[in-house]
């Protein structure tokens, strides 16, 4: 786990979550390390570049792979 | 070599997340072998109206420069009258973009931010038989879709795009509800960020004012950002612990009065530090001083500031269920 998520429009829930993070430095540290790990692994430029490559090849009809519109829409671009 | 023309409302050195994203993507496309042009223009004409009021008239024109391998064209509509309407400026911009296309014969248009760039770009592309990609940003469909004036242009643009991309599934879902035929020609994926070195950044100007636990956020703060909830939460906490609420950025000018009043009434105004609009390097320098990075947005896409905070090891706290919750609520 790398973050706390609370309901929108609720300052009360937000205060509880903030207090938890303020009172637990080790939790903050754990979240910080996990967040950096996630961004380095899953949000690397090479990942985004591959996504753009597939979109451009699809639109320009220059695909050299077997990518189909259905694959692009539903499967190959992870989120 | 295929020629691509990206249309955008900002590009570095302009400050803003869309400009940063376009800059990053332009260089990715160059690496993939495309010749990349970027046409920069706004569809909001506050500056033009101010200049007209000051009798600073001008002809429509564009300036072209090479910027790190990207050909950047900055388009400016004519200023002819103090009573010019939106369509006067927009038709000028259309003509300028059309002029660029005649000169360079682009193989593909790619519009970022459908509200300002999408319709004009897509219309031109369709008239010239050139495919167009539209990349949707958060405010496009979270807010502007509710504008009766913009609704038809937005849906037409979606329907006539060769492909549409989104930075969150929720944005894509809304677009598919509005225009079901884009189901098979749309996709969503996140922004990316390259590793950053935080230890060589300058010391932030306001670091001496950061006391206790620093709860920070970065951006251009406005209605959708949910700042009110963060202020209320901090008011609850301040009786128990020393905190600083650090806003890296500024409140949008059109809402300044509202935010000044909200701050005054918040009960934590003395613990709030606002940097004002600063450049990216200065903003990044504040991240290592934050103990918690708060994204209190009611709606948002995939903000670059969030990715930068993650790189800086800052723990995250979000006040959203959509769309970021799906993004971050993971094990």
Q: Please, could you describe this protein's structure?
A:
The complex is a heterodimer of chains A (79) and B (331). Chain A is mostly helical and 79 residues long. Chain A has two domains: 9-43; 45-79, no CATH class. In chain A, 67% of the residues lie in helices and 4% in strands. Chain A has four helices and one strand; from the N terminus they run E-H-H-H-H. Residues 64-79 of chain A have low confidence and may be disordered. Chain B is of the alpha/beta class. Chain B has two domains: 3-188, Glycogen Phosphorylase B (Rossmann fold, 3-Layer(aba) Sandwich), CATH 3.40.50.2000; 207-328, 3-Layer(aba) Sandwich (Rossmann fold), CATH 3.40.50.2000. Helix content of chain B is 38%, strand content 21%. Chain B has an eight-stranded mixed beta sheet, sandwiched between helices. A five-stranded parallel beta sheet of chain B has the order 11-10-9-12-13, with helices on both faces. The longest helix of chain B is centred in the N-terminal third of the chain and has 19 residues, at 86-104. Classes of the chains: A mainly alpha (79), B alpha/beta (331). At the A-B interface, strand 1, helix 1, helix 2, helix 3 and helix 4 of A face helix 1, strand 8, helix 8, helix 11 and strand 13 of B.
């Amino acid at each position: 786990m790398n973050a706390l998520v609370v309901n929108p429009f609720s300052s009360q829930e937000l205060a509880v979550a903030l207090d938890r993070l303020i009172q637990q430095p080790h939790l903050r540290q754990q979240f910080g390390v996990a967040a950096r790990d996630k961004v380095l692994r899953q949000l690397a430029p090479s990942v985004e570049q591959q996504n753009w490559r597939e979109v451009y090849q699809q639109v320009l009809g220059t695909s050299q792979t077997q990518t189909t519109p259905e694959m692009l829409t539903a499967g190959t671009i992870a989120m | 070599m295929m020629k691509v023309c990206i249309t955008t409302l900002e590009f570095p050195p302009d400050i803003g997340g869309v400009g940063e994203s376009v800059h990053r993507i332009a260089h990715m496309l160059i690496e993939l072998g495309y010749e990349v042009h970027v046409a920069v223009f706004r569809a909001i004409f506050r500056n033009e109206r101010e200049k007209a009021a000051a009798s600073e008239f001008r002809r429509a024109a564009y300036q072209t420069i090479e910027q790190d391998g990207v050909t950047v064209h900055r388009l400016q509509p004519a200023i002819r009258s103090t009573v010019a309407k939106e369509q006067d400026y927009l038709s000028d911009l259309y003509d300028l973009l059309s002029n660029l296309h005649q000169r360079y014969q682009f193989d593909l248009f790619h519009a970022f931010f459908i509200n300002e760039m999408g319709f004009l770009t897509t219309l031109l592309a369709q008239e010239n038989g050139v495919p167009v990609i539209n990349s949707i940003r958060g405010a496009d469909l979270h807010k502007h879709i509710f504008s009766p004036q913009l609704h038809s242009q937005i849906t037409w643009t979606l329907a006539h795009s060769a492909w549409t991309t989104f930075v969150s599934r929720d944005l894509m879902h809304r677009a598919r509800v509005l225009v079901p035929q884009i189901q098979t020609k749309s996709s969503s994926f996140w922004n990316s960020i390259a590793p950053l070195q935080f230890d060589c950044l300058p010391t932030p100007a306001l670091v001496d004012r950061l006391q206790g636990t620093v709860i920070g956020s970065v951006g251009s703060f406005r209605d959708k950002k949910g700042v009110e909830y963060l202020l209320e939460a901090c008011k609850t906490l301040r009786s128990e612990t020393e905190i600083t609420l650090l806003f890296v950025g500024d409140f949008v000018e059109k809402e300044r009065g509202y935010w000044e009043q909200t701050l005054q009434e918040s009960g934590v105004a003395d613990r709030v530090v606002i940097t004002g609009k600063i450049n990216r390097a200065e903003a990044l320098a504040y991240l290592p001083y934050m103990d918690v990075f708060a994204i209190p947005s009611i709606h948002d896409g995939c903000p670059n500031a969030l990715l930068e905070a993650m790189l800086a090891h800052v723990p995250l706290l979000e006040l959203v269920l959509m769309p970021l919750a799906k993004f971050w609520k993971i094990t």
